[in-house]
Amino acid sequence: MTDLPQLDPVIHAQARLRVTVALAGLRPGDQITFPRLQQLLDMTAGNLSTHLRKLEDAEYVEITKAYEHRTPVTLVRLTAAGRAAFESYTKALHRLLDATGGD
């Protein structure tokens, strides 16, 4: 059997994969507010924060704190490194499925 590809453990956790997929759906450089991301993923604020921290530590996401009309807002975006890691992850997953028959 050929060498099976390794899947990025930072992305591979289900919740982080869901976050990464949601952010990868945005155009490069676009941001989403934390509450909107939380709503899209149906995650608690604490759970989302924990997974975003792991992704931020890996430099896959960037968190920006700003103000809109004197109201604090947290913005999240996928970095270029995060987008590249996600693309590598999906390619590795396809290779893994192809190597095992995909059924």
Automatic annotation (TrEMBL):
The lineage of its organism: Bacteria, Bacillati, Actinomycetota, Actinomycetes, Pseudonocardiales. It comes from the Bacteria. Residues 22-97 form the Winged helix DNA-binding domain. This is MarR family transcriptional regulator. PANTHER family: BSL7504 PROTEIN (PTHR37318). InterPro entries: WH-like_DNA-bd_sf, WH_DNA-bd_dom, WH_DNA-bd_sf.
